[in-house]
Design brief:
Immunoglobulin-like, mainly beta, flat, 152 residues, 4-stranded antiparallel beta sheet, single chain
Length: 152
């Protein structure tokens, strides 16, 4: 139960003053469409279980009267989950990852040491995601960033 509570709470973020952030979590469910195809729907996450796919969406809004430059959003990958590769997105953002909570880079540039051997980082190694919005965020403008995980 502790895992479920932790996963559904807001996660810590870093952003600049004048920009407010709101986080929401969703259970991602495969739903059969009228034409027989399958589409993923982001549904309110009331309960989750091991194996479930969860999506996190962070909405940012410039609540100030001036444009804000250099907006950065950091979000940890929740404990007892594994990041789903290539699921982080955000229009107009630069996305980097961390395997140690300190150094951020592109996934293909990150390495970990396991059993004394250095190897390329895998999805299970990703501890956090950073989105940098290089263009100034105008007053009252908003957008969102998101990523997905699988519950262990």
């Amino acid at each position: 139960m502790r895992l479920l509570t932790t996963l559904l709470l807001l996660f810590p973020f870093a952003a600049l003053a004048g920009v407010s952030l709101e986080s929401a979590s969703y259970r991602i469910v495969a739903v059969k469409q009228d034409d027989g195809s399958i589409a993923e729907e982001w549904q309110t996450a009331e309960t989750i279980a091991p194996g479930d796919k969860i999506g996190y969406r962070v909405t940012y809004v410039n609540t100030g009267n001036e444009a804000v430059s250099g907006v950065t959003i950091n979000n940890p990958v929740p404990e007892s989950t594994v990041y789903i590769m290539n699921s982080a997105n955000g229009a107009g953002t630069e996305i980097t990852y961390t395997v140690d909570g300190k150094t951020y880079g592109r996934i293909q540039d990150l390495n970990v040491t396991e059993d004394g051997e250095v190897r390329p980082a895998r999805a299970k190694d990703i501890e956090g995601i950073r989105w940098v919005i290089p263009a100034p965020v105008a007053p009252e403008s908003q957008g969102y960033v998101e990523f997905q995980v699988r519950v262990d």
